[in-house]
Design goal:
Strand content: 35-45%
Distance between the termini: 68 Å
Mean pLDDT: 88
Number of domains: 2
Helix content: 10-25%
Order of helices and strands: EEEEEEEHEEEEEHH
CATH topology of the largest domain: Nucleoside Triphosphate Pyrophosphohydrolase
Radius of gyration: 20 Å
């Protein structure tokens, strides 16, 4: 018989649980989590920057949010939540949404799963910036410049969510691996 799940603590949005000796976090009162890879017609990736209390700093991220967290919309479909979050956070409407993938965000820490969507034919209809509890800055970064831009932000002390690199994969902008001194080809000694 598998170990029983024990609830250790419960808040409005999160629950701390244990199975056997493994403690983990669960989201409460949602139907899912969505994340968007939004690319403009000028081949720019739409990113957001906002303060995140758990890490006590601003973070560069993909537009994302919770589905089913609004009273009366508990059964909100993921695609509807994706459209809502994109508009709310960035001011963009998506002409088309394509479901890309779904999976756990941090399987050693929590049970939440995220569904990524590709937003195509996006058009700006408002400033975005989030809801009244958020202060979001919207960035438009040319796809080919995203890796260098992210490195610059990280050097400036602004962490960047690694899901952005997955977004580059889905947007078709794969960056070649950098060579390190260990992976550099060995030169032959002259004979």
């Amino acid at each position: 018989m598998p170990p029983q799940r024990t609830v250790l603590a419960e808040g409005k949005h999160l629950r701390l649980a244990r199975i056997g000796t493994w403690e983990y976090c669960e989201r409460r009162n949602i139907s899912g989590i969505v994340c968007l890879v939004a690319v403009t017609d000028r081949a720019e990736l739409v990113l957001i920057e906002q303060f995140r209390p758990p890490v006590d700093c601003r973070v560069i991220e993909l537009p994302a949010g919770l589905a089913g967290d609004i009273p009366g919309q508990e059964t909100e479909e993921l695609a509807a939540a994706a459209r809502r979050e994109l508009l709310e956070e960035t001011g963009y409407e998506a002409g088309a949404l394509e479901r890309l993938t779904e999976g756990p965000t941090s399987p050693g820490f929590g049970s939440e799963r995220i569904t990524m969507f590709l937003a195509r034919n996006v058009r700006r209809v408002s400033e975005g910036g989030g809801d009244s509890s958020e202060s979001i800055v919207v960035h438009h970064v040319p796809l080919k410049q995203v890796p260098d831009w992210l490195e610059e932000k990280q050097r400036a002390g602004i962490p960047c969510d690694p899901k952005i690199y997955a977004a580059l994969y889905f947007a078709g902008e794969k960056r070649p691996a950098r060579r390190t001194s260990r992976s550099a080809p060995r030169r032959r000694k002259p004979e």
